[in-house]
Design a protein that fits this description.
heterodimer; A: Aminopeptidase; 9-stranded mixed sheet; two-stranded antiparallel sheet; 9 helices; 13 strands; B: mainly alpha; 24 helices; globular
Chain lengths: 376, 425
């Protein structure tokens, strides 16, 4: 049998496809290895989300739960990072708190990777980097940068239309993989709904009093540099925001809309006794106006295109001329988190006292790397 | 010259060179344009990004593959011709009513799924032979069906591009039914009537029936309708009555439909050559699938190199009149969903101050026309394959004035969004 030209072309294409598959396959596979965290000495125990909902056992989203328990009894606080793995400051703040905090009164529960599945992939056509690095005094520490959504390898295919349960609210199909559209979750639902259900069960079983869901958003999104709160937590939120304004940290108060379902600040408040708070900072790499997409953009937050957009005056944009560096975004989250807890304590509730967390100016001056352990 | 502009020019030049000079398929040319863009942009050969981009439209690619095989099998069993003849017998005395009923019929799967592809591949494929048999020129029939498919995508209750824009600005999918109705049904009805009075005269039932009942596509068994009914009912049911239907996803629904056809053919006789028909279906679908993979790569590199942001930001500096012009550019992204996401979301902010629900409906109409436009020309490619027309651009050319009409309609919705909202909301 003689080889025709088309057979030779086909063979070349197949070999090229195989080589590309092997090279890129290794890169994609590498994102499935778990990240290592280095909890502070204040850690008292760890658990997993499957301790609260066994349906998560053996899934990518059986995330680790870290407990920091004070010697004195008090209220319980939950801190959630990595709901959306493309919102870097969210996961990074959870790690910073995890690796520094000392609790003297009450309890702090930290889930640094709420949607672990989303950390294993990136969104096609967004050209996001797979990792970003934070410089520390002892070398760089690398973190995964992921997708806003649960990986399609763990939950697929999407419906054309996502109908949130139990409200019946309709959203575009891909939102079915958005953890912050899945609350209160369902035990027999998708992986994302099961994850949401597990988190709500944790809030109930651990009698969590105050819960935080950390986020970032594109600079052109209207709700940014904001604290979104459920109506029952309004007093705590407004007191905290007043304190923050006094310190020169401008934060927009946003009342959770009662008709927008599936979000933590709405459903945690409606389905549990917790006071829920969702916090947003401005992250240019998430925006549609950004220029070159790179790991530096995550860390330095400098995008000339956003500066141009700001100067155009055509949009309301949360972007400073010097950019939105990770230090400022992390510092905002940490400080807002602290002030809300302090406001909660001041309103006569059983207190929670957290120590050894850096102040706003400390993080700006020393960098985030000064407060996390160098990678090994 | 800005370096992003140089990258864009290099990418476009590579695409044109590939298609015109090197005679490469459009999909391959788009992929090469992506590679050139990455090289010019100083990104080297970013294999991971190229692969990731190619998966940007993975689900539509799967839908196209199995959907095309499903439709080929239905055709080979005579189902499509049979339905066309049946509709004609029912409505032949009232051609105006017939064409309006056909319009709603073609739009139906799109309205229920938010995907124009569903309209063209199912009811669109049924309507095409009927329109042609009634005397409409082949290209005009293709043009009407692709426009109706677009209208189906825009129409409520399910409009995915509107959901995409809403998702980008945290706007729930509430209160959009009337604005979306306004942006879809009037266009569908007006276009149908224009085509009817331009191309169709008296309907001669016997002559048309003779034209439609051609030998090899004669209905094999009435049971052959079951897979088609199953696919339509399940797709609509999964979207509208999610509590009662196990979520399978469109590719699997089509795949089950394929198995049902094969099973029925074994049971009733008449046979079906699954490998031959699948091969023919895949051969038709392959260029479209390659284009979608190419578009994904192209967009990934535009984003990686900053060209996407550059284009969007520069649009902000335009005077008001030119902002509307940018909205008019939405179809030229070549994908309804891509356009809704990339241009639709920032544009909703640009038009802040007008009623956001009505603005969204106007933007959705303009974005959805993207499914007709190159580089993929998805709907035109489907219609061309069904019509056995090699050059799908002929259908696009014939659709030019309906596209301009729809664009102007969308533009008027944008300009008068506040006034429209006062009337309909």
């Amino acid at each position: 049998m003689t080889l025709e030209k088309k057979h030779i072309s086909a063979a070349i294409i197949l070999i090229a496809a195989a080589v590309i598959s092997i090279i890129t396959g290794r890169q994609f596979l590498a994102k499935h290895y778990p990240e290592t965290f280095y909890p502070s000495p204040g850690l008292t125990r760890t658990g997993k989300l499957s301790d609260y909902f066994s349906g998560l056992q053996g899934t990518e989203n059986d995330s680790r739960v870290y407990f920091f328990e004070g010697e004195e009894e008090g209220s319980t606080v939950l801190l959630l990072g990595g709901t959306h793995p493309n919102e870097a400051a969210s996961g990074l703040v959870a790690v910073l708190v995890l690796e520094n905090v000392e609790v003297t009164v009450g309890r702090l529960i930290v889930i640094p990777r709420a949607n672990r599945s989303g950390f294993t992939v990136n969104d096609p056509m967004e050209a996001h980097p797979q990792y970003y690095s934070i410089p520390t005094p002892n070398g760089e520490r690398r973190f995964k940068y992921g997708s806003r959504l649960t990986s399609p390898l763990d939950q697929w295919p999407d419906p054309l239309v996502y109908s949130h349960r139990p409200s019946g609210q309709r959203l575009s199909g891909f939102e079915t993989r958005n953890l912050n559209r899945a609350y209160p979750g369902r035990p027999d639902g998708s992986l994302t709904e099961k994850t949401a259900y597990g988190i709500v069960q944790l809030i109930k079983k651990e009698n969590v009093n105050v819960a935080f869901d950390l986020h970032e958003a594109a600079p052109e999104i209207p709700i940014i540099n904001a604290i979104v709160y459920h109506e029952k937590a309004e007093e705590v939120a407004l007191n905290a925001i007043f304190e923050l304004e006094m310190e020169g940290i401008s934060v927009s108060p946003e009342l959770s809309p009662s008709n927008f379902h599936g979000l933590s600040h709405r459903e945690w408040g409606d389905y549990t006794d917790v006071y829920p708070f969702l916090m947003e900072t401005s992250n240019p790499i998430q925006g549609r106006l950004r220029g070159e997409t790179s790991a530096e953009l995550i860390v330095e937050g400098v995008s000339p295109e956003y500066r141009m957009a700001l100067e155009s005056g055509a949009l309301q944009i949360a972007y400073k001329e010097t950019g939105e560096p990770i230090e400022r975004r992390v510092a905002r989250h940490v400080t807002c988190f602290r002030r809300v807890i302090e406001a909660y304590n001041q309103l006569g509730n059983k207190p929670v006292i957290l120590e050894n967390l850096p102040e706003y100016e400390d993080i700006l001056q020393n960098g985030v790397g000064a407060y996390i352990v160098a990678g090994k | 010259m800005d370096y992003q502009l140089i990258i864009l020019i290099a990418m476009l030049a590579m695409f044109v060179l590939g298609v015109i000079k090197l005679k490469l398929p459009a999909g391959v040319s788009l992929m090469l344009a992506g590679v050139v863009g990455a090289l010019v942009g100083g990104e080297g050969l970013p294999l991971r990004h190229l692969v990731e981009g190619a998966f940007g439209f993975f689900e539509p690619i799967l839908i196209i593959a199995v959907g095309m095989i499903f439709m080929e099998l239905l055709k080979s069993r005579g189902v499509l011709a049979s339905i066309s003849v049946g509709s004609l017998k029912a409505f032949h005395r009232f051609p105006t009513l017939l064409i309006i009923a056909l319009a709603v019929f073609v739009m139906f799967p799109g309205t229920m799924t938010g995907l124009a592809t569903m309209s063209i591949l199912t009811t669109g494929a049924l309507a095409l032979p009927l329109l042609i048999a009634m005397g409409m020129p082949k290209l005009s029939a293709g043009s009407l069906v692709v426009m109706l498919s677009v209208c189906g995508e825009v129409a409520p209750p399910i409009c995915v591009p509107a959901m995409i824009i809403g998702g980008g600005v945290d706007m729930p999918y509430i209160g959009l039914a009337k604005p979306l109705f306004l942006a879809s049904f009037p266009i569908a009805i007006i276009l149908s009537l224009v085509y009817r009075f331009k191309y169709l005269g008296r309907v001669d039932l016997d002559e048309i029936t003779r034209k439609l009942e051609f030998g090899e596509e004669k209905l094999q068994s009435r049971l052959d309708f079951i897979p088609l009914v199953f696919v339509i009912v399940y797709m609509v049911g999964e979207t509208m009555l999610h509590g009662y239907f196990i979520h399978l996803g469109i590719p699997l629904i089509f795949a089950i439909g394929i198995l049902m056809i094969v099973g029925i053919s074994i049971f009733t006789g008449g046979g079906v050559s699954i490998f031959k028909v699948s091969g023919a279906g895949m051969k038709k679908a392959m260029p479209v699938m390659a284009i979608l993979a190419g578009v994904g790569i192209f967009l990934e590199i535009l984003t990686l190199t900053g060209v996407r942001g550059y284009l969007t930001v520069n649009a902000l500096f335009l005077p008001d009149a030119l902002k509307y012009s940018i909205a008019m550019m939405m179809p030229f992204l070549g994908s309804a969903y891509g356009s809704a996401s990339i241009i639709g979301v920032p544009l909703l902010y640009v038009f802040i101050g007008k009623n956001e629900l009505v603005v969204t409906s106007g933007l959705v109409l303009m974005a959805s026309l993207g499914d007709l436009m190159p580089p993929p020309s998805l709907l035109c490619s489907y219609a061309a394959q069904m019509l056995k027309e090699k050059n799908h651009f002929k259908i696009l050319r014939r659709s030019l004035w309906p596209i301009i009409f729809a664009l102007i309609f969308g533009l008027l919705i944008l300009i008068f969004a506040t006034q429209i909202a006062n009337i309909i909301l």
